[in-house]
Structure to design on (411 residues):
């Protein structure tokens, strides 16, 4: 099935062509006809599957030309995502007279007020700032025909659901609603029941598995050798661009500075940085000015950064879903990528949880000729050995009948 057969308007088909899209992705094939038929849609798909175009194309197609009132509202959890989705929509709508605006916090109101005053057809917004504009009477939602709740589980994580509900209440009941979410926890389920009408669910691929094209491995290592191993990996691996994920903002700063000292061009992205710094980091990384982006998980979800050749988890993510999201940064749009995870003994539980979540074991490897120090984690692969974190538990009888007390611990 090709784009012209999907029933999109000629101007939108022009936009698709200009973007260089040849064939619809699986989620586009399923979602576009549903939205064109007026159905509410719940979409769950891996990141990088083309979900933005999946909702944007049929909605834009049905809008026709510019009119003064806002008819589409897309809610996003973060400023970065809002900016990215606005750019994608603007690109796809470039052969129409439709106007698109993005509304998010952390920047001045002036430009956003100007854009709203001129009248926009499509609003892409984060919830807090949109509520501010609504309260100040800068915009109205009473003509909204299409509402999109993107990355709904992320909005839940960030505590935005009450704001989302207040915003949905200001939209007309007679509207079309789509919701995209990687997982459907109970709170999202009740939002769906409240905000949507007989929605159709579209699930693409197995929700839990990381992108198929990504090759991923784990490097067990002692805690105090992590930065050395990271630097050595970056020396030896042939990469184009790498995202290095850290657990905390402090660690991201520390690792970022360390890598700069080793003469890498490094951008740092986390939520303590100003909006300008975050934009500059992302832009520089996309342009290729920085080869490395050191980030916390705010960069992991949904951000469209093309051609990331490697993801390195300097820290094992605490939530298995974040592993899948981080790894999803590589292998976008069917390209291949590698994902390395540095693992210390304390991570064993989290790694097990990740492996259960994705339904398979991730291969453990060692970097050749790296001067490894011994760590208990290296014993984990011996047949019959319980993992390091269990071996360290004193006086605990394990399921196999073994008793590992302090006397058996290796020193
Ligand atoms: P998304 O999942 O919406 O973040 O999209 C991921 C990437 O895939 C973006 O860079 C899109 O421009 C790209 N993309 C979306 N649809 C297609 C398509 N049909 N063919 C090729 N690339 C696409």
């Amino acid at each position: 099935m090709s784009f012209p057969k999907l029933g999109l308007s000629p101007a939108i088909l022009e936009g698709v062509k200009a973007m260089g899209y040849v064939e619809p992705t699986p989620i586009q094939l399923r979602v576009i006809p549903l939205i064109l038929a007026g159905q509410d849609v719940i979409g769950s798909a891996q990141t990088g599957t083309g979900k933005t175009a999946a909702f944007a194309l049929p909605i834009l197609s049905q809008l026709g030309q510019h009119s003064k009132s806002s008819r589409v509202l897309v809610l996003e959890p973060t400023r970065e995502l809002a900016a990215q989705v606005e750019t994608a929509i603007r690109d796809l709508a470039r052969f129409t007279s439709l106007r698109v605006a993005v509304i998010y916090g952390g920047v001045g109101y002036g430009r956003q007020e100007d854009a709203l005053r001129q009248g926009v057809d499509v609003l892409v917004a984060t919830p807090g700032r949109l509520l501010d504009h609504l309260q100040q009477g800068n915009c109205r939602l009473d003509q909204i025909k299409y509402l999109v709740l993107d990355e709904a589980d992320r909005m839940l994580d960030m505590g935005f659901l009450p704001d989302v509900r207040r915003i949905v209440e200001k939209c007309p009941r007679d509207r079309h609603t789509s919701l995209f979410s990687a997982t459907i926890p109970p709170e999202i389920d009740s939002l769906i029941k409240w905000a949507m009408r007989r929605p159709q669910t579209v699930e693409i691929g197995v929700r839990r598995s990381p992108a198929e094209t990504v090759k991923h491995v784990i490097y067990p290592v002692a805690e105090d050798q992590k930065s050395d191993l990271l630097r050595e990996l970056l020396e030896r691996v042939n990469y184009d661009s790498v995202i290095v994920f850290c657990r905390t903002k402090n660690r991201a700063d520390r690792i970022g500075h360390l890598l700069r000292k080793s003469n890498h061009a490094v951008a740092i992205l986390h939520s303590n940085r100003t909006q300008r710094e975050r934009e500059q980091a992302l832009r520089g990384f996309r342009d290729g000015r920085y080869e490395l982006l050191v980030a916390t998980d705010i960069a992991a979800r949904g951000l469209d950064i093309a051609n990331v050749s490697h993801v390195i988890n300097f820290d094992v993510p605490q939530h298995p879903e974040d592993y899948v999201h981080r790894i999803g940064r590589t292998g976008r749009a069917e390209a291949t990528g590698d994902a390395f995870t540095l693992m210390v003994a304390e991570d064993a539980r989290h790694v097990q949880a990740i492996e259960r979540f994705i339904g398979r074991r991730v291969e453990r490897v060692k970097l050749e000729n790296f001067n490894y120090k011994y760590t208990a984690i290296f014993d984990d692969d011996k047949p019959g050995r319980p993992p390091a974190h269990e071996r360290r538990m004193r006086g605990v009888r394990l399921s196999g009948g073994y008793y590992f007390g302090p006397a058996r611990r290796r020193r």
Q: What stands out?
A: The mean pLDDT is 85. The first strand starts at residue 41 and ends at 44. DSSP finds 15 helices and 16 strands in the chain. Residues 3-204 form a domain with the Rossmann fold fold (CATH 3.40.50.300).
